[in-house]
Amino acid sequence: MKTDIVQQAQDLISAEAVRNSRLRLVPPDSLLMVVRSGILSHTLPVARNSVAVALNQDMKALVLDGSVHADYLRYTLQRAATAVLRQCGKHGTTVASLEASALNRFVVPVAPLAEQRRIADKLDELLSQVAAGEAALERVRANLARYRAAVLKAAVEGRLTADWRATHPTPEPA
Predict the structure, then answer these.
(1) What's the CA gap between 29 and 71, in Å, rounded?
(2) How far apart are CA 30 and CA 63, in angstroms?
């Protein structure tokens, strides 16, 4: 899970398969969390889903009741990722995982709902600006790499010093 908002599933399941199995779809605006994966040794993947999704055994969902804003909780858990991994991580297992009972005990600050919305909206706005800045920086880096390659090519081909060499002939041939 490499996104903050899951808008489309990686794999699809038919409506018939859902009807004919014990599978439950997670409703939109739930909080999705990876609970078993090697990535948990350093990162806590957390996202909100904007569409109904089915999860595998490596993920859990918090179906929210409306008293907590999904994006507020997502941002709160992303900020607290190090503490979540340290306090809820299972140690000594083959694959890094989070213990469900420890997650249930993990305490997060909960502001009034209207304040949660304002905080999440402001973070959306500011992080959008950060993403735009990062994209611009990547474009500049790509341009600098092309410029550097062009300068090196011109230097190797002797084009950088052509004017100087024309006005300063070599006294004796090399």
Answers:
(1) 8
(2) 5
Q: pLDDT tens digit string along 62-106?
A: 999 999 999 999 999 999 999 999 999 987 668 899 999 999 999
- DSSP state letter for 107: -
What DSSP letter does each residue of 20-46 carry, written as one string? TSS--PBPTT-EEEE-BSGGGGT---E
pTM higher than 0.85: no
For the chain, which residues make up each domain, given as ranges? 5-110, 111-167
Q: Is 83 helix (H, G, I), strand (E, B) or coil?
A: helix
d(CA 28, CA 30): 6
Q: Does domain 5-110 have CATH number 3.90.220.20?
A: yes
